[in-house]
UniProtKB/TrEMBL annotation:
Native species: Candidatus Enterococcus wittei
Protein name: DUF2877 domain-containing protein
Superkingdom of origin organism: Bacteria
InterPro entries the UniProt entry points to: AllH-like
């Protein structure tokens, strides 16, 4: 990160520096502890983050320059980076997003998933209650935390196998929420429910890995295809995911599909 910080300062402030001139501090923080005004407006962070601060004091005028990187607590996934000059944000870049959220992108993605016939390939929807909650999910306000807690409570651990279908679906939703930097408190919903509801050890491990920024290679490839808009590789990526487990791949794709449907409705 230090090399990147040096590059950022040179690019944004035209200052050429050496690594030994920099100070460094890294600390775990709750997002509420981050000072207002030091972040771009559109960044969404989990409750707990790691902040990496690279500090340079210019000998000519004594100005303080801070290049920061905010990541998950394992430092594996970066959310945002920025440059502060005398405590004022002068440059920032949000990382890890697929694209700006625009209706055309969401519409095209939703149609691509719809063409797969996912509804017929998932074993998740087993009764009227399942169907009703899914319909309510599509209509719920993003800020309706009470409903989303109820939704997670119903589907977490629901189903059979090493990773129950309900878990696979929720993981698909979490992946898309993170990729679009949506302001969803999945971490708190999932971790709270894991203390109340027993799921498989495999699902438990997958949830915690996903919430820490880890994604399986099949889905990394899919998200990269979406980000780069290289849809010529779409079928191959979907095929690799569909072959994963008995229905786990399709159940996870179903979660992605539901999330895209909801996102499209909220933009219309």
């Amino acid at each position: 990160m230090l090399e990147t910080a040096i590059e950022v300062l040179e690019k944004c402030a035209q200052l050429v520096t050496a690594s030994e001139e920099w100070g460094y501090e890294s600390v775990t923080m709750e997002k509420e502890e981050i000072e207002i005004g030091t972040l771009p407006k559109d960044v969404h962070l989990p409750r707990l983050v790691m902040t990496h601060l690279y500090i340079y004091c210019a000998p000519e005028d004594g100005k303080d320059y801070v290049v920061y990187f905010i990541t998950d607590i394992t430092s594996q996934r970066e959310f945002v980076r920025g440059l502060l000059v005398e405590g004022r944000l002068v440059w920032s870049q949000i990382e890890g997003t697929i694209d700006e959220i625009n209706p055309k992108l969401i519409y095209n993605l939703k149609n691509n998933f719809q063409s797969l016939g996912i509804d017929e390939k998932t074993e998740l929807v087993a009764n009227e209650r399942d169907q009703l909650l899914i319909e309510e999910f599509l209509d719920a306000n993003w800020e309706n935390h009470e409903f989303f807690q109820q939704f997670v409570a119903h589907f977490l651990g629901r189903g059979i196998g090493l990773t129950p279908s309900g878990d696979d679906m929720l993981m698909g939703m979490i992946m898309m929420s993170n990729s679009f930097s949506m302001p969803m408190e999945w971490s708190s919903f999932i971790l709270t429910q894991l203390e109340r509801t027993q799921t498989t050890k495999v699902s438990d491990a997958y949830y915690k890995a996903l919430l820490s920024g880890y994604i399986s290679t099949q889905f990394v490839s899919l998200l990269q295809i979406i980000k780069d808009k290289k849809m010529t590789d779409w079928n191959e990526a979907i095929s690799r995911i569909a072959d994963y487990g008995h229905t786990s791949g399709w159940d996870t794709l179903f979660g992605i599909f539901l999330f895209l449907q909801k996102l499209e409705k909220s933009l219309s």
